[in-house]
Specification:
Layout: E1 3-12, E2 22-27, H1 30-41, E3 45-50, E4 67-78, E5 84-101, E6 106-113, H2 122-142, H3 147-154, H4 159-169, H5 174-182, H6 186-238, H7 243-257, H8 262-277, H9 283-297, H10 310-320, H11 325-340, E7 349-352, H12 359-370, E8 374-378, H13 386-389, H14 402-410, E9 416-420, H15 433-440, E10 449-450, E11 457-458, E12 464-469, H16 477-481, E13 484-487, H17 493-511, H18 523-533, H19 540-558, H20 569-576, E14 594-601, E15 604-616, E16 621-624, H21 629-644, H22 646-649, E17 659-664, H23 678-690, E18 698-700, E19 703-704, E20 710-711, H24 716-725, E21 730-734, H25 746-749, E22 753-757, H26 760-767, H27 771-774, E23 809-812
Length: about 800
């Protein structure tokens, strides 16, 4: 029969007390101490209920289980520090009906629940015996239950009491014990207890099997160790030292210290066992030793910590390089993402640009900004796949590939790895190294890079690979697809002067033991040095010329023939000789049959004069100047356009039956190719046949179609800079290249007029002078059976004006 009582509540953390259980409790919380004091003033009865979460220090009623145990305080001992230790004995179960107060201690109304059960039945007796038997088996497996305790527990006949005592001795979680405490019905309590004991027995049995297996392995290892020690002792006594054994032990010790992964460690230990069984003089032993040395030396897990301070990285990039703003911006973006997601797979960057623009030094700056090791591997002329993947160990003198060799040199798994001149790769009967690089440069595959020599995968996913190339068209497409291409254009004249002033001159002065007190190079002298003694996109030759200046000055200084002063243009000619290069300059006067085009070369932009002369003949077209196929086709397209529009240009429609055309591009020793001279050739042809002079201060570039459309081209920045150097005032560009306008330096944009054209009619209208203005330039033309000596066609030319939707696009830079 249940009974209601008001009692103080003592919440328990991580422990549960059953009826008939005697236990010591350490009490330290204020409310708990107050509850004990209140119970001691009364009949020493307190309700013990467990908390649902152990971490909660000040529980609420919702944090405490609703069923606990009534317990009597048998003994109380106050400890130093304000805590106390109490000895309690469980009496019976109690259900919390209501909380009367929470401060200064929990006071609850409980309903005391006496044991419930149907009395002695066969089912109950069977359950009791089953629990007793299982507890006995549990005690044997766990070995944590003393024999005396086991005998006392098994002597209990009452089923409910037996269940509580057994549950108190099991190593169960509080949640599982609470399910036993919640079961007021004895039969239900025994069934739940049976499930829990069976689960614990299974776990103990599994632990026993695992322990047995581990013990066997340990015994085997101990046995091997014992036998090896015995062997050493015997050999020592006999004076016979086994060098093989000593070497194997040394390798085992190195492998243990190398922090290898499990797979690689097993592979290395197998090789050690092989080495141990080989004769000392065996050739195979040398191969195994070399292999083990490589395995131990490689940084399988060692990585350097990245420094992702963007401000510091930006300072380093600006300190090392002038200009290259887009490239620096991309590198800073990479560092920012690296800071937010340190485990991100590293991208594969490819710097593409002409020689000497700073591709390799940029990679070094990235390594310095990240505070990583730097490794450089030149791919120029590499033909053997084994250079990348290594040789198999069956070959004499086999070694890992240069990727693995580079990582060993770096000593970390995440260096900045520069693959230089990737566009110079070749292939022959020894394999295709470009194909071998596909796995290296694929972030989805390179975490398991397989080197033929190692025979185990190496993780390259944390290595930052940077490629450099001068051109993209020689890189295989699958390899190029794995890279993020960053283009570096050639330096402008102003940029070269600044680079020389900030970097090259101080560097060479220091290298040659000179100082700025001996000589300085003013900006105007640097400009003359750049224009007259170098012709390149980068600054390598410029640095050589600065070094030559330093040598000449140093020689004169030692001979005491030099007085300190800033270098002048005359000094340049005295020290370096006459200028070796002269930029193509714009023509002084308009000419008939000669148009100025813009070209892009490996050393930057250049202006190109295209000359056309009509001759008596039968419509033949002659092309000279070492032109490529694409440029020849552009000439054919321009010729066809002029023939199709002869009437509009004021040219006799049957002229091609009696006139040959000779198209020549000067500097015939230099190969020239590409479609961007199309509109220039067409303009020169139209000028020669219509006898209208081409403006001398105008240059153009663009591809032409048969119908007269002007198509976009590349290298706009370099071409415009060349036009500016040559004294050109007006530049014609394709309309679709308007997007490239922002790449042109601002100081150059302010000094040039730009016209963006869509049609060939616009080009001719802008480039050709009127007939009246062209007469004075016609007297030097050769005799022509159709057009006559120096005579212009009668009447004004009839060039169709472009329709309204093709209005000419003319603007100054400050009008943008």
């Amino acid at each position: 029969m249940s009974k209601r009582r008001e009692l103080p509540l003592l919440p328990l953390r991580g422990i549960l007390v059953f009826p008939y259980m005697v236990i010591h409790l350490d009490v330290g919380r204020e409310r708990s101490i107050a509850a004990i004091d209140e119970a001691m003033l009364g009949d020493r009865i307190v309700l013990l209920a467990s908390q649902k979460e152990t971490e909660i220090d000040s529980p609420n009623p919702d944090d405490i289980y609703g069923i606990g145990t009534l317990a009597e305080i048998k003994q109380l001992l106050k400890l130093p520090g304000g805590t106390m230790r109490v000895l309690v004995e469980g009496i019976s179960r109690g259900r919390i009906e209501d909380y009367l107060q929470e401060e200064p201690y929990f006071k609850v109304v409980i309903e005391e629940q006496p044991e419930q059960g149907p009395g002695e039945t066969a089912d109950l007796e069977a359950l009791r015996r089953g629990v007793a038997h299982q507890f006995e088996e549990y005690a044997k497996l766990s070995k944590k239950v003393p024999t005396e305790t086991l005998g006392t527990v098994l002597a209990v006949e009452e089923p409910g009491r037996l269940a509580d005592i057994v549950a108190s001795h099991l190593n169960l979680k509080v949640v599982d014990k609470q399910t036993i405490l919640d079961a007021f019905d004895v039969e239900e309590r025994l069934e739940r207890l049976t499930e829990l004991i069976m689960r614990e027995i299974e776990i103990l049995e599994l632990e026993r099997r695992i322990g047995l297996r581990v013990r066997k392995q340990m015994e085997k290892a101990q046995k091997e160790y014992y036998l090896r020690e015995q062997m050493k002792a015997i050999q020592k006594e006999l004076g016979d030292k086994d060098e093989r054994q000593a070497e194997a032990d040394e390798y085992r010790e190195k492998i243990a210290k190398a922090k290898l992964t499990k797979e690689i460690e097993e592979k290395a230990l197998k090789e050690v066992e092989r080495l141990e069984k080989m004769p000392l003089a065996s050739a195979e032993g040398t191969v195994v030793r070399t292999y083990l040395d490589w395995i131990i030396a490689l940084p399988w897990t060692k990585m350097s910590k990245d420094k992702t301070d963007l401000t510091r990285a930006e300072e380093i990039l600006n300190e090392d390089h002038y200009g290259l703003e887009k490239v620096k911006e991309r590198i800073l973006e990479f560092l920012a993402i690296r800071k937010l997601t340190p485990k991100m797979k590293s991208p594969i960057l490819c710097f593409v640009g002409p020689p000497g623009v700073g591709k390799t030094s940029l990679a070094k700056s990235v390594a310095r900004a990240l505070d990583r090791k730097f490794v450089r591997m030149s791919l120029g002329g590499v033909r053997d796949e084994a250079e990348i993947r290594g040789h198999r160990r069956t070959y004499i003198g086999a070694l890992p590939g240069r990727i693995i060799q580079g990582l060993r040199t770096a000593g970390t798994r995440n260096p900045v790895f520069l693959l230089d001149e990737i566009d110079k790769l070749a292939s022959d009967f020894r394999g295709d190294p470009a194909s071998a690089l596909l796995e290296v440069l694929d972030p989805e595959q390179n975490h398991t890079f397989a080197d033929h020599y190692l025979e185990v995968p190496f993780d390259l996913s944390r290595t930052l690979f940077i490629m450099t190339a001068n051109t993209l068209h020689t890189i295989p497409r699958p390899l190029l697809d794995r890279m993020e291409v960053i283009s570096l254009s050639g330096y402008t004249e102003d940029e070269k002067v600044n680079i020389a002033k900030r970097y090259l001159v101080p560097k060479q002065l220091k290298a040659h033991g000179l100082s700025e007190e001996v000589f300085t190079i003013p900006d105007e002298t640097l400009v003359k040095l750049v224009q007259g003694y170098t012709r390149e996109s980068g600054v390598r030759n410029l640095e050589r010329e600065v070094a030559a200046l330093c040598r000449k000055v140093a020689t004169r200084l030692v001979k005491k023939e030099w007085t300190a002063h800033p270098l002048t243009e005359n000094d340049l000619e005295t020290l370096l000789g006459t200028p070796r290069f002269q930029y193509q300059m714009a023509a002084l006067n308009p000419e008939i049959g000669a148009a100025t085009g813009l070209a892009y070369t490996e050393v930057g932009g250049d202006v190109l004069t295209i000359e056309v002369t009509p001759l008596p003949g039968k419509g033949m077209l002659t092309l000279t100047g070492k032109l490529g196929d694409v440029m020849k086709e552009s000439a054919q397209a321009g010729w066809t356009f002029v023939r199709a529009h002869a009437r509009e240009l004021g040219i006799p429609e049957d002229f091609y039956d009696k006139v040959d055309l000779h198209i020549h591009v000067p500097e015939g020793a230099i190969p020239k190719d590409g479609p961007s001279a199309g509109i220039t050739m067409a303009t020169a042809i139209a000028s020669a046949l219509a006898k209208r002079a081409v403006r001398s201060d105008l240059a153009m570039t663009g591809e032409i179609t048969l119908r007269g459309n002007v198509l976009p081209i590349g290298g706009v920045k370099e071409k415009v800079l060349a036009a500016h150097r040559a004294g050109i005032k007006t530049v014609l560009l394709p309309e679709k290249n308007r997007k490239d306008y922002e790449e042109i330096p601002e100081n150059v944009r302010e000094q040039l007029d730009f016209h963006f054209v869509k049609r060939m009619e616009e080009v001719l209208d802008l480039a050709l002078l009127p007939v009246a203005e062209s007469e004075q330039y016609a007297k030097n033309l050769p005799l022509n059976p159709v057009l006559g000596q120096g005579a212009l066609p009668s009447g004004e030319p009839r060039i169709q004006r472009p329709p309204q939707d093709l209005e000419l696009t003319t603007f100054k830079a400050d009008g943008i």
